[in-house]
User: Which sequence fits this backbone?
């Protein structure tokens, strides 16, 4: 994988089984979804077709959902036709999901100094946007790329690639650039660097963009969520502004603070710990920001997601 240093736990989980029927009774206790003040959910498998993610989300009482629109570790592209789009939307309408995003391919590297890889990345990124628009997704989450040569040049190339793709593929889906753990030559591990990237996007396109903050990533990048929680959010507000925050990826971490290692863990069971997630779930500034789990699935994805969502909903209720 030339463009990315790590692979999300969502891509490493065991293959998902057949999706449950949409009219089947919900038997997993994921907490009371009717009390979600903002969308809350997890990354869902699209095994069997994009529409199969919906019943999986329903099974764990999710009100938010993230998917892949294609195989994340392959260059092979595909288009979403009208039949698939209709089937996906109809399946989603039978759930409580009110916000849905996709995560782009791990191979895309808009910051690459290698012309062939960068051109291929732009074309793949455009195809990703087209699929999201066709499915009616609220957002597309994308990692800034690897600069490889030097950081300023990488930021410039990344911004140029984003501009090219957004201009070529107009549509309703918002592009959310995800803050990274800062491993190797990966861009976007500081609020300041993300602000630099976004500032290069013309104002006519900037309204279609925002930020995704992953708790495991910012922890690994050096933001101390335990001892400097409010300071971190003050810095975020001063640098990027809360209006830019389009999504939170809620993940505990197997890595140490400032380790620059992207290692997701179950909520409350890693080095970040339960108290931080209690604060996030009761933080009025974050109430309506969509929140998506990317925690390890284990051998029983639905049961694990339900347990994590129940835990977060308990935190939100002050338990």
Assistant:
């Amino acid at each position: 994988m030339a463009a990315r240093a790590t692979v999300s736990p969502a891509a490493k989980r065991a293959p998902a089984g057949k999706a449950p029927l949409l009219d089947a009774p919900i038997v997993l206790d994921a907490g009371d979804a009717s009390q979600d003040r903002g969308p809350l959910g997890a990354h869902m498998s699209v095994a069997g077709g994009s529409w199969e993610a919906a019943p999986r989300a329903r099974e764990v009482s999710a009100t938010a959902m993230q998917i892949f629109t294609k195989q994340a570790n392959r260059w092979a592209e595909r288009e979403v036709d009208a039949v698939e789009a209709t089937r996906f939307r109809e399946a989603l309408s039978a759930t409580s999901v009110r916000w849905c995003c996709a995560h782009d391919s791990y191979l895309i590297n808009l910051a690459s100094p290698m012309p062939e890889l960068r051109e291929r990345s732009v074309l793949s990124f455009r195809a990703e946007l087209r699929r999201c628009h066709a499915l009616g997704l609220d957002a597309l989450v994308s990692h800034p790329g690897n600069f490889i040569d030097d950081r300023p040049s990488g930021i410039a190339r990344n911004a140029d690639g984003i501009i090219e793709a957004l201009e070529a593929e107009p549509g309703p889906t918002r592009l959310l650039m995800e803050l990274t753990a800062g491993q190797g030559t990966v861009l976007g591990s500081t609020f300041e660097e993300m602000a630099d990237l976004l500032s290069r996007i013309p104002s006519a396109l900037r309204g279609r963009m925002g930020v995704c903050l992953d708790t495991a990533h910012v922890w690994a990048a050096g933001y101390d969520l335990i001892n400097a929680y409010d300071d971190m959010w003050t810095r975020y507000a001063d640098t990027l502004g809360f209006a830019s925050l389009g999504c939170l990826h809620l993940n505990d971490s197997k890595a140490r603070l400032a380790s620059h290692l992207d290692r997701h863990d179950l909520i409350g069971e890693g080095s970040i710990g339960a108290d931080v997630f209690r604060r996030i779930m009761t933080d009025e500034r974050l109430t309506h920001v969509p929140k998506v789990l990317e925690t390890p699935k284990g051998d029983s994805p639905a049961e694990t997601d339900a347990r994590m969502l129940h835990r977060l909903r308990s935190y939100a209720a002050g338990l």
Observations:
- The beta strands are 40-43, 64-67, 99-103, 139-142, 174-178, 209-214, 245-250, 252-253, 264-265, 291-293.
- The chain has a mean pLDDT of 94.
- The chain has one domain: 9-316.
